[in-house]
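Hmm, how's this folded?
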Amino acid sequence: MASASSPPKSLGNDDHSLSRVPRDQRLGFWTMLLQWLGQSGSLSQFTLGATIGVGMTFGQAFLAFTLGAVILEVVIFAIGLAGMREGLATPLLTRWIGFGRNGSALVSFVIALSLIGWFGVQNTIFATNVTALAGGSPRLWSAVGGLAITALVIFGFRSMALLAKIATPLFFGLVAWSIVGTLSDHSLSQLISSPAPGPHMPLAVAATAIAGGYMTGAIVAPEMTRYNAKGSHVFVQSASSMILSEYIVGMTGVLLGHLVKSSDVSHIVLSTSGAVGAVVVILATAKINDWNLYGSSLGVVNFFQVVFGKRLHRGVVTVALGLAGTALSAAGVMEHFTEFLSTLGIAIPPIGGIIVAEYWVVRRMRRPLDETRAAQTLPATSPTWVPMSLVIWAAAFCVGKYVTVGIPALNSLGTAFVLYCGLGLLGWIKPYGTSAREDADQDLPTPRRTTPAGAA
């Protein structure tokens, strides 16, 4: 049995689940760019664009996507830059930023539950599209898709980067093919100037769908940015992802929605690009879903260490979560949980508001991270509880859930940010108790690599 101070030996890659990612193991610009762009290419983004296109003019949709992109980029950069500087994923980062050791367990639980739920939902979408393309049983394809993603994520970030190198260029090749092959026979100016073919969608509703739909991904951006080498890379790569996701994929969906007067993305994609295009979109959907499973595994590892004092290997956790998500998807029950997952999603943005407020504005708890950053170790202790952060979290959730004006995800995030800044600067946010860190061996120097990883 592995000791509590050392990660257990097991299958796959633990991927620094409870430590900083060493500087000499950060990845190069182009490798990370493809990972970011891989998040831009998904079937759901085509669906979103088509849905907005049915209810808005091209100009209105452009404004909605711009508003959503700006909101998301500000959040992603503020949180992602903290993750890059510290080399820490969101669940571990919150031990010293805003929540304390025990509070980070609650954060980890909420994030893990949300992401594994969406893993099952996305796997159901995967199975539905493959069944439409190749026939067979949706349950069989759910099992195949879920197990395939699980096998990939077991081996961690580098195997996922390899998938991104394949899926990302293929997906955007499909987008170019769709534009050239479908829109070349129609007047682009007429499509742009045409009225919305369906009932009008208010700007606030569209912006909510755009910004709110990806807000969970923005809050867990450190899962990716901890592998970035420079802050400028985080900005350029995340901004590139936003531009491609909103203005190419999303606005292409708007044009196709105007063309066929339908928000049925499967109909749009299959009718414009055929079976080959569908296969590529399915591959791109898989590229999104690997991050759902990966982020969930990191949350569960932190949760178990805090609550049960058990140092689990991330690879083993990935297997357990992947099997559970796959089984629920194959059983056809995941669609019944989408309302619950959407509600849970309102609980996640306040986490980001608190992280940004503490790390960049209040800065009362981050000093231990500052003092250990150069040595690439973690502080020996962390606050045990930060009760006021939990109160702010609950209040922000209620604002996001029950205030009907504005964008719920942004309302909850903004409320948490403002409350934490105000109360923190007044000195009302105080940690209680001190907990010793369990992983003393992580203070040992990490062997240096002779060749920087991801030099490409």
Remarks:
- The radius of gyration is 22 Å.
- The chain is about 70% helix and 0% strand.
- The mean pLDDT is 85.
- Strands lie at 381-385, 432-436.
